[in-house]
Write a structure and sequence with these properties.
This protein has a single domain (about 5-275), classed as 4-Layer Sandwich (Metallo-beta-lactamase, Chain A), CATH 3.60.15.10. Helix content is about 25%, strand content about 25%. The protein has helices spanning about 45-55, 70-75, 75-85, 115-120, 195-210, 225-240, 250-265; strands at about 5-10, 25-30, 35-40, 60-65, 90, 100, 110, 130, 135-140, 140-145, 160, 180, 185-190, 215-220, 240-250, 275-280. Strands 8-5-4-3-2-1-16 form a 7-stranded mixed β-sheet. It has a 6-stranded mixed β-sheet with strand order 9-10-12-13-14-15. Strands 7-6-11 form a 3-stranded antiparallel β-sheet, with no helix packed on it. Helix 3 (about 75-85) packs parallel to helix 4 and helix 6 (about 225-240) runs parallel beside helix 7 (about 250-265). The longest helix is centred in the last third of the chain and has 13 residues, at about 225-240. It is globular, with a radius of gyration of 17 Å. Bound molecules: fe (ii) ion (FE2) (2 copies). One fe (ii) ion (FE2) binds near residues 68, 192 and 194.
Length: about 280
């Protein structure tokens, strides 16, 4: 099992360092023993600039994982791809399809991966890995692949469509999460959790045959959620016996407050430039 894991928040909407960029986008740098991975790339080149400013070992990134195709997770990929010609990229094929936000009374908005990123990915086809099934990225580290939707109360929420007219809802089957095993339990890293938290955690527990979840970090997609949905997410966390939550990105104000209230010190958000560190107990 990996003995050391460090997760650095490269970009998100809040930072206490004025010299780091912030945006509505998400990106983490993961150091797992001697592997360096990028999990999402944010909306712009902010994640890349922050990775450099923070002195992270970004030059050693060998694998890039895309949690899904939305551009707040893929728009910043260009700088990394150009600087890392050897890196392999792990994504679901549906991450590359057109995606839109369509809301009544508002013009449709594209959420698709930018064309430039699309072209850069197509230029390295032999380094793309389509995560249409769960896969391992090393000992004690894995990707969920598509997440079965077993909890109907966790239907994809939000104005997500595959067309700009809003005819075909986007099931976001490209959504995936990453897990890393430590001796204290699993560390789960989410992009936006579009598949739902209970669905994601139960899938990871069955994939890894591990019950104990040490921490869930990432976007919980609760920014426009009802109180009932927030309570359902909290219930799912308790039911799966999650010890700590680190809400960022699309968790939203109400969701983040609910986690902080429920988990106290073990429910605090992370700021851009901060990191989490886990040492396995041998
Ligand atoms: Fe998303
Ligand atoms: Fe997002």
């Amino acid at each position: 099992m990996p003995a050391h894991l460090r997760i650095t928040l490269l970009v998100d909407h809040q930072s206490t360092h004025s010299d780091l960029e912030t945006e509505h986008g998400l990106s983490f740098l993961l150091e797992v023993n001697n592997q360096v991975l990028l999990f999402d790339a944010g909306a712009s080149e902010a994640a890349f600039h922050n990775a450099e400013r923070l002195g992270t070992p970004w030059r050693r990134i060998s694998r890039i994982i895309l949690s899904h195709g939305h551009r707040d997770h893929t728009g910043g990929l260009g700088a990394f791809l150009r600087a890392l010609p050897e890196a392999h990229v792990y994504l679901h094929p549906r991450a590359m399809t057109p995606k839109f936000s369509v809301q009544p009374g508002k013009p449709p908005r594209t959420l698709s991966m930018p064309q430039e990123i699309h072209a850069l990915l197509q230029a390295r086809m032999d380094q793309l890995h389509w995560s249409t099934a769960p896969m391992r990225l090393g000992k004690g580290i894995g990707l969920t692949g598509p997440i079965p939707r077993r909890h109907p109360e966790e239907a994809v929420s939000g104005p997500f469509f595959l067309d700009s007219e809003g005819h075909t809802p986007d099931p976001l089957e490209d959504d995936q999460a990453l897990w890393v095993a430590t001796n204290q339990g699993l560390v789960v890293i989410l992009g936006c959790a579009h598949s739902g938290l209970a669905n994601t955690l139960s899938h990871i527990q069955s994939l890894t045959k591990t019950k104990s979840i040490l921490v869930v970090v990432g976007g919980f997609h609760l920014s426009s959620a009802s109180d009932a949905r927030i309570q359902a997410t909290l219930a799912a966390l308790r039911k799966t016996d999650v010890q700590r939550v680190v809400p960022v990105h699309c968790t939203g104000h109400a969701g983040t407050s609910a986690f902080q209230e429920a988990y106290g010190d073990l429910g605090q958000a992370l700021q851009v430039g901060e990191w989490l560190e886990f040492n396995a107990v041998h």
